[in-house]
From TrEMBL:
Source species taxonomy: Eukaryota, Metazoa, Chordata, Craniata, Vertebrata
UniProt superkingdom: Eukaryota
GO biological process: endocytic recycling; retrograde transport, endosome to Golgi
UniProt-recorded name of the protein: VPS50 protein
Gene Ontology molecular functions: SNARE binding
GO cellular component term, pick one: EARP complex
Record domain Syndetin C-terminal: where: 3-122
Gene that specifies this protein: Vps50
InterPro entries reported in the protein's UniProt record: Syndetin_C, VPS50
Cross-referenced Pfam families: Syndetin_C
Organism of provenance: Trogon melanurus (Black-tailed trogon)
Amino acid sequence: RVRIPLPVSNILWEHCIRLANRTLVEGYANVKKCSNEGRALMQLDFQQFLMKLEKLTDIRPIPDKEFVETYIKAYYLTENDMERWIKEHREYSTKQLTNLVNVCLGSHINKKARQRLLAAIDDIDRPKR
């Protein structure tokens, strides 16, 4: 047995948690269709994940917790709020933003708004190219 010093253990936990949270968002971004109930279940699952983490580690705050929660909650935004949100949240990949818009199509965003939102994403992505 090798004892890991607490500071090293905390760094390892932090990296593992951050990677898990980033993976969750990437998984949510791969969803093709999602209802309001589905998003509510995603929130519930994430809350369960956080509860288990809090029992496993003393790391507070949980790294990238807001990154996941913000992405899940963005589904409920109106067209105008989503456009502003897309411009303000550059921490998400183009793929993640695009899928968010596509999943919202039909539930509370129409095709015209979808095109406008996708154009906004493209405008943000353009300087990177």
